[in-house]
Amino acid sequence: MLKFDQVLHARLGGLKEAVTVWTETVSKLEKTKEKAENGLRSKADKADWKGENAGVTQAFVRKTAKEFGDALTEATSIRNILRDAEGEFKAAKSALEKLVEQAPGKGIRIAPDGTVSYLIHPDRRSKDYDGPEPEQADFEAMRSSIKAAVDRANEADDIASRALRALVGKDRNNFSGTKYDSLAAASKAQDAEDAHTAYELYKKGDDATPQEIDRLNALFKDNKKDPYFAERFALEVGPKGSMEYWADMGDPSDGSRLGVDHRDKLKELQQNWSLTLATATHSHSPEMEQWKADVIKAGSEPVQTRGTSPYGFQVMSNLMRVGDYDDTFLRDYGNGLVATERRMTHDGRLPADRAWLQTTGMPSHLNWQGGDLGKDPMIGFMEALGHNPKASTDFFNNDIDLTPGDGKDDKKLDPFDYFSKDRKWPEELDDKGHLTREPGYDALGHALEAATTGHPYDAETEGLGDVRTKENAEVMQKVVERYGSDPKYMHEQPGIDDSLGKMGAAYIDELNRSLETDSDTTMEEKKNSPFGSNDAKGGSRFGDEFDTGLLWNRGDAVNFMGIVSQSETGHSTLSAAEMIYTTSVLDEVGPKPGSSFDERDLTDARTTLRIGSEAQGIMDESRMAQIDKDYEKDSEEHKKAVGKTTEWVKFGVGAAAAGGVVALTGGAGGVLVPLAAETVGGAVVTFIGMEADDMAEKYEKDEMLKKKSDDLSDEALAMGKENSLRPGIAYANAPGWSEKDRNYLDETLVDYVRDARLHARDNSLPDPYEKK
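The chain above was modelled as a monomer; its predicted structure follows.
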């Protein structure tokens, strides 16, 4: 693998000279080939040799003449490979040189190993510094550009080296005659070769050795996201071929030891197979369009192995858990899957698990990713939607035609209602051998996360921005209406609470906007609200009707936040999001640090802190009520649950502003929170860098567990109250304020809103859920 410095300082003179030499060789061989064909071979063909001499000599002369042609073809291919590789290396090198040249002007330093940092760190800048002040998005753009250039060079290097080895071949006595017109042609040929090798390994089924499974996994990884390889493999294996192979892998009756001794290899294979097929579905060639249609057609048919008979939809859905499948294919697949289930359950009169009972044999083990065995095909499909936000948004915003071939019958089904309310998700056998519905609701939550936020549910948070659209918001309106209407929906759907928390965090701005209104039922925002996500022109990103209109009323917002906060995970996520968002709004609407201001300039800042404090009160009171319902007072479980209610402050540690979004947990699947302003050096950064670490230390101790439950609850609520005021403290202590202004802001803003928590008790909070 080439590194940054190797590409940046690559000496391409030798490669350029090699291209020149090989070009000259091609020219010479063209003349030699002409002489061989018009002279040597032509005369041999015309010669009237008899007997043994004719059988040997003529064949030898013809073969020798052909070798000159093969030599020319091989030399031309080598020249073409070297020529294109030089072009790719040169382009990559030039791109890096340009980035290195531009970086200082953007306030960025690129280290010799390619890492980026501040040219002058904010902590080391002088007071009169007026140079560039790069933000997180600038660093991410620079890293992305560097990676793209290095990847370009590495890809060219890999293709060229493999092509040159193939051209030389293993036969020292014969030229290969292989023809490559370009580096791209060589890449395509290599993809086809790899796809066929993978196909040969596929044919071994579960008789393959562990080493052969490793080889298959390596081929998939080497061609990761390669469209041509993916399409060639998908077409060679065929839709039924993939289903039969994976069903055979999950057949526990045929004596294979792979699923017993090498579960990790099958887990990796399932992931790689899914990624490959996902890439293949983005091809719209006639052959792949037919492939996609055949997959759906085979979904309702049993796939017979020696000892199992899962349905095609059951098998295929487990090969869809990873990767970004094509939008249209997911829509058609989902419609076909739901229509099949409704038909097999007699339009819902039978429970969903009755649809997917295998016709004969033993139960199949179709999912090796963990969580469930793969019996319910809706789980894998929901995971596929969770990786494709557009497809998921469209799916939950449109009806499904249950009788597409019947022009007279217009039977429709609302997929959101079906999956969030009407469908009784089957129990699945989890990794511990327990029957649970958690895998299904967990997958549903992932699909809804993608549909509401516009990002894959497990996307890397680096570089993500706020991409919510009106269509995303329409799904979120359904989520708030359903899960805010009755606690039973969240509590009777184990595994969905963490997703509800993340969705609430992604819409924390709109929830605050609703909380500010005086009426529980109005759908008009309070005039000149400091909340809400607006575009550059001051309008709502969700359409003109939401410039002043709300996505939901105050009553719905209170109910949703209250119910989600009954869950430990939901409470933690929403609380952290509220604190980060409130801090960002203060950065936007409050006077800028160092400026002069009067009382009236603090109106929006007071409102922001008041609503933030009230929101935290709603969440804390709801969580405490649920703890009282779940555990006996003064029990160890009750005390531990109360003690955890303030641990959410740890979520804020290390949070970073990126593209107007805060990544609270970092890594894949982080919680995303819309910011009111993209600020560096304001209250957001001050809070993240200073306050959160100090607060987190307070909750490392377990002394609180020695207290009575009532005292402990009071203390936890008091801590929650103080924590809700931290954004105001961070704002008052932001760099730039004089000591006089800092003290005034701390007293005026923080003390002014201390009583806002009392408003939380004025709200009609949702009742805690009582377990049956």
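The beta strands are 108-110, 116-118, 400-401, 412-413, 428-429, 435-436, 656-658, 661-663, 672-674.
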